[in-house]
């Protein structure tokens, strides 16, 4: 009975601070759905979502203790149901074979691939000799070679001849599943073409926002040629298709990549500049300033500007979160209330997760909310402790920039390191000398360009933007060139980030001295991360590549071919080597059949039809990988040809209890809509 009383008292002590836990519980339900090995039936998902929603809304009638407990269960149920229903809602045909032939469709997306090629997303797709009901809703095609004179435009219907294949699964068991990512984007096939694109009909006018984005991007890049213009276009319109991979990598290596993502920094600066500019303008008109609620009018103007910025940006997760928080803060001004920052973050997370539950798995969502939550908590504590009042006036802005850079770097470091397998050594230095320029020069210049655009004088604002962006790009390339600017880290296990996030959220949200217990899961997560063991052997799902872990790093069976898979393996290992260097670690062997002896035995990679023809057999304790179909007599060894690998996905071999254990990508993926193929 004493334990029950203490628990009730503990929960009652959190009254008024429980709302920020709502998106945490919803996220737990979403995470539960994505961790399932089999897809729940619709007759299970609908009741889960419905009962969860009703219970979450009515739990207030159950009292201050039972109500929150019921709400926790209800939100977990609701998250599971919403994620499942969303997966069925976006369902569409997925290409079931490798296709080569005519590709026809309408351009609904323009960006760049990892190989720095322009990439088009097409809808209303037509493929030769295919039933329209089996044609993917969307396909994504990279443009290689000389593409002639047809410039990609929103709504333009084009035709080309190219290669398409189903979206690939994870490069290794438990790795990032691109097929799941493509499923929620309704992309049913990906590929490339080297044939010039032909325009079939003029651009359609029903993609007005997309057309406006690309028009604005083109206008910015016409005023600012080169990488400065591409950077400015990314900030103003969200279009990154003009940015080269070298520039993007420099920004990533220096922790400045957040400056090209339209997020809280940009949305807050834009709204702040518009709000401050309108108030200053009204202050110059005494009759208006004294008779009208100019503060509220300025807030409405800033809200309209932020909404327009959201529409032009394409509405990614970080932009949606930023807009919701800005809207809450400006709405508080309209009703003469003070905005509750953590509540604003929680409300933004609830809305984003309810609309797009799959966003929970994206690094953009995780990094955006990690940084925002940490910043709100730290600056809230500084406000309560009245730290700013104890500093000289000139030191306040400098302290704000330093603290925000430090907090955001610490908060996003685990997420960035887990997803991208590296950390920037001098990221805080780069941010300290770049971020202030965004606030005092770049974003005000962007607003100035928007104001002058109707008069044809927007080039003035863009020229000023270019000065600031040139400085930021110079800083990025300079800091990137410093010795030891990037450190590579291995991928953690699947439990590391969730455990670490729960610990950080407990420290942030829980009230009282008990929040110190949030350090325990964080320490546990780092211990689990340090103890993570990478697979001893990895085999590509195409049969084109084998990698064996050695004391020097992973040795690859080929110096070329399967470049994306090789890069993924090496990044997940925390290895900074490229494929060619990793291939030199493989012992010299025959060009058509390459063997490696590891602690679990011998593994042999047989390459191509010539290698298969020269293959002389294997021993019972050997594992043989064929890059082509094996149709010969039965073999005494464990062998995987390309057909078996395509069915089961890539392989990971580990030593367990002294014996080699093989795990396939299908073992990890389970039977889900995006992995049914």
Computed over alpha carbons, the radius of gyration is 27 Å
Q: How many helices in DSSP terms?
A: 25
From the spread of the alpha carbons, the general shape counts as globular
The computed structural class is alpha+beta
Separation of the first and last Cα atoms: 54 Å
Number of strands: 17
- Enumerate the strands of the largest sheet in spatial order, edge to edge or round the barrel: 1-2-3-5-4
Largest sheet: 5 strands, mixed, barrel
Helix percentage: 40-55%
Low-confidence spans:
none
Quickly count the domains: 5
Beta-strand portion reads: 5-15%
Rounded mean pLDDT score? 85
Considering the chains and any ligands shown, give keywords for the structure.
677 residues; alpha+beta; OB fold (Dihydrolipoamide Acetyltransferase, E2P); 5 domains; 5-stranded mixed beta barrel; 5-stranded antiparallel β-sheet; 25 helices; 51% helix; globular
Q: Can you summarize this structure?
A:
This protein is of the alpha+beta class.
């Amino acid at each position: 009975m004493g334990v029950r009383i203490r628990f009730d008292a503990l929960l009652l002590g959190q009254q008024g601070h429980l709302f920020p836990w709502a998106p945490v519980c919803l996220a737990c339900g979403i995470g539960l759905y994505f961790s399932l090995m089999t897809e729940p039936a619709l007759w299970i998902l609908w009741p889960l979502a419905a009962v969860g929603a009703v219970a979450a809304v009515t739990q207030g009638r159950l009292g201050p203790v039972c109500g929150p407990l019921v709400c926790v269960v209800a939100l977990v149920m609701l998250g599971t149901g919403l994620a499942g229903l969303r997966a069925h809602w976006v369902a569409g045909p997925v290409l079931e074979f490798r296709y080569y032939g005519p590709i026809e469709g309408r351009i609904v997306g323009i960006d760049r691939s990892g190989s720095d090629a322009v990439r088009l997303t097409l809808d209303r797709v037509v493929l030769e000799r295919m039933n329209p009901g089996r044609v993917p809703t969307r396909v994504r095609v990279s443009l290689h070679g000389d593409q002639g004179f047809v410039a990609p435009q929103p709504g333009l219907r084009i035709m080309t001849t190219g290669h398409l294949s189903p979206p690939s699964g994870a490069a290794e068991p438990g790795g990032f599943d691109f097929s799941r990512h493509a499923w929620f984007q309704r992309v049913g096939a990906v590929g490339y073409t080297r044939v010039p694109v032909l325009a079939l009909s003029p651009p359609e006018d029903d993609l007005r926002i997309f057309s406006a984005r690309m028009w604005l991007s083109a206008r910015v890049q016409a005023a600012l040629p080169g990488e400065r213009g591409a950077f400015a276009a990314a900030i103003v319109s969200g279009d990154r298709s003009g940015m080269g991979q070298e520039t993007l990598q420099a920004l990533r290596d220096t922790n400045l990549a957040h400056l090209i993502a339209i997020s809280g920094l940009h949305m807050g600066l834009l709204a702040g500049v518009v709000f401050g500019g309108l108030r200053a303008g009204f202050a110059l008109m005494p009759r208006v300033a004294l008779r009208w609620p100019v503060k509220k009018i300025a807030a409405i103007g800033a809200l309209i500007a932020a909404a327009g910025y959201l529409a032009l940006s394409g509405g990614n997760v970080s932009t949606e979160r930023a807009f919701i928080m800005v809207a809450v803060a400006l709405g508080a001004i309209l009703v003469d209330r003070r905005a509750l920052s953590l509540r604003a973050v929680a409300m933004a997370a609830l809305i984003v997760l309810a609309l797009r539950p799959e966003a929970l798995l994206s690094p953009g969502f995780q990094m955006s909310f990690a940084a925002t939550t940490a910043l709100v908590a730290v600056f809230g504590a500084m406000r309560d402790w009245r730290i700013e009042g104890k500093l000289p006036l000139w030191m306040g802005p400098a302290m704000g920039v330093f603290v925000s850079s430090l907090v955001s770097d610490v908060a996003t470091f685990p997420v960035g390191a887990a997803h991208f397998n590296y950390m920037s050594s001098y990221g805080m230095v780069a941010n300290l000398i770049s971020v202030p320029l965004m606030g005092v020069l770049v974003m005000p210049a962007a607003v100035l360009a928007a104001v002058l655009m109707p008069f044809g004088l927007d080039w003035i604002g863009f020229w000023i933007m270019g000065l600031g962006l040139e400085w930021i790009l110079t800083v990025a390339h300079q800091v990137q060139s410093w010795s030891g600017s990037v450190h590579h880290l291995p991928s953690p296990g699947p439990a590391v980030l969730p455990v670490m996030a729960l610990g950080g959220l407990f420290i942030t949200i829980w009230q009282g001295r008990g929040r110190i217990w949030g350090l325990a899961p964080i320490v546990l997560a780092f211990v689990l991360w340090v103890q993570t063991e990478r697979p001893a052997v990895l085999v590509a799902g195409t049969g084109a590549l084998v990698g064996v872990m050695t004391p020097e790093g992973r040795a690859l069976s080929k110096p070329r071919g399967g470049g994306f898979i090789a890069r993924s393996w090496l990044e997940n290992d925390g290895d900074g080597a490229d494929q060619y260097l990793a291939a030199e670690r493989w012992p010299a062997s025959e060009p058509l059949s390459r063997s490696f002896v590891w602690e679990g035995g011998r593994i042999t990679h047989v390459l191509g039809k010539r290698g298969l023809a020269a293959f002389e057999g294997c021993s019972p304790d050997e594992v043989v990988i064929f890059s082509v179909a094996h149709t010969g007599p039965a073999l005494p060894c464990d062998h995987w040809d390309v057909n078996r690998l395509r069915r089961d996905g890539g392989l990971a071999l580990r030593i367990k209890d002294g014996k080699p254990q093989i795990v396939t990508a299908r073992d990890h993926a389970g039977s889900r809509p995006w992995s049914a193929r």
